[in-house]
Design a protein that fits this description.
single chain; 364 residues; 4 strands; globular; alpha+beta; 13 helices
C-alpha cells in the first residue's frame, strides 16, 4: 500500500470514528446514562442508538480498513465483541434499571477507551510515514485547480493491460470532451502517479470548476445506482415471492428492474445537460454528452470510483463535505453490490463493459 493511500485511510477512519462522529456520540451517551441511571426507557434507547451507530461503522468498512492500517500490536477495537455485547444486552431485556446500567456503562466506557487507543496508534503511524509521502499535492495546488483521482477497482481492468490502456484512452478523450461541455479551459494531460495493490489511481489536475462538477456528476450517479442496488438486495426477492408465479407480475417486475438500471444513464445524462455551460454553443453537443454519459455510467456500474484529493483552501469547506458524502454512498453501494447473486454481477459487467476492438485502437 502506498504512503498516500495509508494516510488517506487514516484520515477517513478518524473522520468516521473520531471526535466529530462516533467517539463524540459515545461520550454523549456515557454522560447521559450516568445522569439517568434509573431511567430504563432511556437506557434501552441509548443501547439501540449505539447499535445503530456501530452498524454505520461496518457500512463504511471501518473493520476492514483498521485491519489494513493497524498492523502492529494494537488490535482494532472492531475485533472485540462490543456489538455482540450490546445485542445480547438488548435480548436479555433486564427489568431493573440498575442492573441494565451496570451492564451497559462498562460496555460503552471500554468501547470508548479502545477507540481512543486505536486513534492514538493511527496518529503515530501517520506521523511516522508522513515524511515519506512521495507527492505533496500542496506543491501543485493553487487557487484555481483541483487534484482528482480516477480510481479503477474492477479487477479485469487493472489486471488487463490492453483493457486498462483502452480505459485510459477513453478517459483522456472524455475528460477533454467533458471540459468542453462545462468550461472554456483545456485540461492538462493526466499522469499515473500511484499504483496500489488491488486498484489503480490515475491522478489528474483539473480546473476547480470542472473538478467540482465532475464530483457532483459522480455523486448523482452513485445515488441512482444505490437505489438500484437497494431494490435488488432488499426489495426484489421478497416482492417476487409474493407473486406466486404470476407471469404478468414477473414480467412487469423484470421491466421495472431494466428501467431502474437504465435510469442510471438517464440521470447522468440529465445532470450533464444541466452542467453544460449556459450560452455556449458546442458542435455536436448531444453526441459529446452521450460519450461522457456512457463512460461515467460504465465506470460507476463496474465498481470504480473517483476521489477529490486537493482543492483551493477557500473552497475546502464547500467541496470536501460533498466528497465525504459521495464516498459514503460509494461504500454503501459496495456493500450492497457484494450481496448480489454472482449471475447478477456478471450480467452487470457484461452489459456495462466495453471491450477494446481487436485492431490496434492505440493508432486511432
Amino acid at each position: 500500500m502506498t504512503v498516500r493511500k495509508i494516510i488517506e485511510l487514516i484520515d477517513f477512519i478518524e473522520l468516521i470514528i473520531g471526535k466529530e462522529n462516533f467517539s463524540s456520540l459515545l461520550q454523549d451517551y456515557i454522560v447521559t446514562i450516568e445522569n439517568n441511571t434509573s431511567n430504563l426507557v432511556l437506557l434501552k434507547e441509548i443501547t439501540d442508538k449505539t447499535i445503530s451507530d456501530y452498524q454505520i461503522l461496518i457500512e463504511n468498512d471501518i473493520p476492514d480498513l483498521l485491519d489494513k492500517v493497524l498492523v502492529n500490536k494494537i488490535i482494532p477495537f472492531t475485533k472485540d465483541n462490543f456489538l455482540l455485547q450490546l445485542i445480547d444486552l438488548k435480548k436479555i431485556n433486564y427489568s431493573e434499571p440498575s442492573t441494565y446500567y451496570n451492564v451497559l456503562n462498562p460496555i460503552l466506557i471500554n468501547l470508548q477507551a479502545r477507540i481512543n487507543e486505536n486513534i492514538t496508534e493511527l496518529n503515530k503511524i501517520k506521523t511516522i510515514i508522513q515524511p515519506f509521502l512521495s507527492k505533496d499535492y500542496s506543491e501543485i495546488q493553487n487557487e484555481k485547480n483541483a487534484i482528482f483521482a480516477i480510481i479503477f477497482n474492477e479487477e479485469s481492468t487493472y489486471n488487463n493491460l490492453k483493457l486498462l490502456s483502452y480505459e485510459l484512452k477513453n478517459w483522456d478523450r472524455c475528460l477533454h470532451i467533458y471540459q468542453q461541455i462545462v468550461s472554456d479551459e483545456t485540461p492538462k494531460a493526466f499522469e499515473i502517479i500511484e499504483v496500489d495493490q488491488g486498484s489503480i489511481e490515475v491522478v489528474i489536475n483539473l480546473v476547480f470548476e470542472v473538478g467540482a462538477k465532475l464530483l457532483e456528476l459522480f455523486k448523482t450517479g452513485f445515488e441512482v445506482y444505490g437505489a438500484y442496488l437497494a431494490y435488488k438486495t432488499i426489495i426484489h426477492e421478497n416482492l417476487v415471492k409474493t407473486f406466486n408465479g404470476n407471469q404478468a407480475l414477473m414480467k412487469m417486475e423484470e421491466e421495472r428492474e431494466k428501467l431502474m438500471l437504465g435510469n442510471i444513464r438517464e440521470v447522468v445524462r440529465k445532470e450533464l445537460k444541466t452542467q453544460a455551460k449556459k450560452g455556449k454553443k458546442h458542435e455536436a453537443l448531444e453526441k459529446k454528452i452521450e460519450e461522457v454519459t456512457k463512460l461515467v455510467t460504465e465506470h460507476i456500474i463496474k465498481g470504480n470510483s473517483v476521489k477529490l484529493l486537493s482543492a483551493p483552501k477557500d473552497k475546502e469547506e464547500e467541496i470536501f463535505p460533498k466528497e465525504n458524502e459521495k464516498q459514503k454512498i460509494f461504500m454503501a453501494n459496495k456493500i450492497n453490490y457484494n450481496k448480489l447473486e454472482e449471475s447478477d454481477k456478471q450480467l452487470l459487467l457484461k452489459e456495462y463493459t466495453t471491450t477494446p476492438p481487436d485492431e490496434s485502437y492505440e493508432k486511432e
